[in-house]
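Lecture 7 notes: from sequence to structure.
We start with the chain below.
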Amino acid sequence: MPNVKSAMKRVRITKSKTLKNNIRKSALRTTLKKCREAIATSDANAADSFKSAVKAIDRSVAKNILHKNTAARMKSKLARALNSSNK
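Predicted structure tokens for the same chain:
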């Protein structure tokens, strides 16, 4: 446990930011899971689900939850799955 006042504040800030990041990551994972399920079942709303997943991924990049290359890979993988299910 830190003894310096500024270090104690950093611990508090880190704890709150970690909690927010975990919430955002969980929401992102949920959105991606719903998108994958919609694509797998050839749901009529698969395109809408894909759009919301891409939006969530982009939001995660903006909030520094994901790296931009990881996000690009995720979007590409989802797009490939969506396009192959439409054929």
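Points to note: The mean pLDDT is 95. The first helix runs from residue 5 to 40.
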